[in-house]
């Protein structure tokens, strides 16, 4: 789950900065007047995913637990009635960006031994459905859910995998299997959960559009890491105390795994108003609904 994506989206939408829940004291939580960020780097949809890379990962079900045990309790005291509290939650926006880590290194190192990609994608969708239903039960009604970007086009993938084209299509095909299941999940949830609204943000298409015509979006480099790593292999995280490339505003990727700030701003702006990458309505329309 991407903390940076939430911050950028809030900024572009003109909303207050959403502080990370784990960085807030109990007093801060009771005083909070803005949204709250529950994102955790390298987290996944499945309980076990992410922990083989980092021990202190908060997976999606734990993030929902945090929402239930912190924000839910802290917010209630600000309302005179249950009706007012319920109405407040029904107008709130729940932005969810997940499954990239599940479909990337986690699948390759752990899950490919146990599942075919078809069964694994369905397992992810089933778990995702459970947690979205939990959020609905807790009072959430407006959901903006993004799909997964073409992971096979990241600098890490193209520098570590054999491929014949500009990207590693085996990885992108894996992502597409999951992405293809997502629209019907959200449609079914909206039809069965009364009063709910689910909007899909197509990050995959945003990347495709940029790869086809990078210069029209202000990019000159679509597949090189901007940061400098220790060994020069272009597949490691940024080396400490070394400045990144100077032209990072024209790069799609900042490091071997993550998009640049410029790319984040681009898809946040498109989500807000561009219905070609949102379905059935864009983010502004969802916020106003």
TrEMBL record:
Listed GO biological process terms: lipid catabolic process
Superkingdom, natural source: Eukaryota
Main location class: secreted
UniProt keyword Signal, yes or no: yes
Signal peptide: none
This protein's GO CC annotations: extracellular region
UniProt entry tagged with the keyword Secreted: yes
Protein keywords: Hydrolase, Lipid degradation, Lipid metabolism, Secreted, Signal
Single GO term (MF): hydrolase activity, acting on ester bonds
Cell compartments where the protein resides: Secreted
Family from the record: Belongs to the 'GDSL' lipolytic enzyme family.
PANTHER family: GDSL ESTERASE_LIPASE 7-LIKE, GDSL-LIKE LIPASE/ACYLHYDROLASE-RELATED
Name the record gives this protein: GDSL esterase/lipase 7-like
Organism of derivation: Gossypium aridum
